[in-house]
Structure formats: structure tokens, C-alpha cells
Amino acid sequence: MIVRTLEEIEDTDADIKTENWRSKRIVLAREKVGFSVHETTLYAGTVNDFWYANHIEAVFVFEGEGEITDKATGETHQLKPGSLYLLNNHDKHQVRPKTDMRTVCVFNPPVTGREVHDENGVYPVIVEDEEEAAS
Predict the structure, then answer these.
(1) 133 inside domain
(2) What residues make up the domain containing 113?
(3) Is residue 110 part of a domain?
(4) Span 3-45, pLDDT tens digits
(5) What is the pTM of this model?
(6) CA distances to 6, 69, 71, 92 from 75, in Å
(7) What backbone torsions phi and psi does residue 13 show, to the nearest 5 degrees?
(8) Residue 11 to residue 13: CA distance in whole angstroms
(9) For the chain, what is the radius of gyration of the CA atoms?
(10) Which pathway?
């Protein structure tokens, strides 16, 4: 059994900070459970273009408000506490938080925590090697 708190993750290598968002990686690929879980805060007034070409992501909003636009169709959905969006088709999307928006994100395949969005907003697939995963 693994039990973690957000406080344990803060200011570690599992706490990723950018100008637009902060993501605390709670469960990562090294746990070998087939998914990763993150608590991510997207900052008010930012514009965030993402495309998870190599991952499926589910995002549950539990605080704040914003909107998401499907970049292929132009369809926009309002996001508020209790909203969930599932990027089941590797959808290119844009998230625009109106207020700081706190979310819980689940990725499959799991991320390692070392991924960086490329110029298209894509995370590469990084596979944990056995030795690294054991540490």
C-alpha cells in the first residue's frame, strides 16, 4: 500500500512548476500500476494548449472555473467543480482557467515525472527502466 500527501510532494522533483500551471505528481510510472495521478493547478487568465498524442488523460475539476475547447471542432465546454473531461481520442485542446483551477489528472500510460511538453504540447512516452523504478 502506498499513502502520500500533497505536502510530502511539495518542492520535490515530483512538484512541477511552470508559469501557467503547477502539477504535483502523486503516483508515477515507477509505482508500476498502469496510470499516474497528479493534482494540477492551472492559473487564472492563462491559455494552455495541450495535445497528449501518446497518452489518455482524464481530468476532474474540484476547485475553480474555466473552459476547454476541442481544437479540432471548436466546441467549447465550461468547467467548474464536479466537471470531468476525458481526452479519449488524444484530443488537441485548449484550457483557459477563469480562476485558479485545481484538478486531479489521471494519465495512461503513466508519466514518469520527467516529461516536458514539446512545441505541440505533447508529452513523449518515457519508460521507466527496471533499476530506476526499483529505487
Answers:
(1) no
(2) 6-125
(3) yes
(4) 999 999 999 999 999 999 999 999 999 999 999 999 999 999 9
(5) 0.86
(6) 34, 6, 8, 12
(7) -70, -5
(8) 7
(9) 15
(10) Amine and polyamine biosynthesis; ectoine biosynthesis; L-ectoine from L-aspartate 4-semialdehyde: step 3/3
